[in-house]
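Example record

The entry below shows one chain as it appears in the dataset: sequence first, then structure tokens.
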Amino acid sequence: MPHAQTQIASSHSHHAISCNHCDYHVTNIQPQAYVMDPNGKRISTDSISQSMTALYGINQQVVEAVMTGENEDDNAKALHQMILTLSGKLYRHNCQQCANQFSLNPQKDNHACPHCWSQSIVQMSGGEQCPKCQQGKLN
């Protein structure tokens, strides 16, 4: 089941791709970082450290030191594991079966379309066959 997601102040750019044969269009194909809130909801963010501070009250400098490897004591290792568990990146995908677009974290989510459950999905980056017309290329 796909995770719900929201946005925390984000200024990331929206790169788009379109089919060169039909009107199929995809916006925002750039990966989007997220942090899970205490209720398990994925919150999109431009800064994992700022979001960890806002959501969990952890000092931002401590989070950044752990994420960059500057702090490696036992507490830092536990915090690093917590950060890895509660954060990730969402990548835009399209379903080759039903042509729906969706985001998922390939390292943590089921590798299937949340609309039709097909496993025939492709991460969008450009160059893929259009799932709508099956004739054009996305670029």
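Notes for this example: The two ends are 29 Å apart (CA to CA). The chain is about 20% helix and 20% strand.
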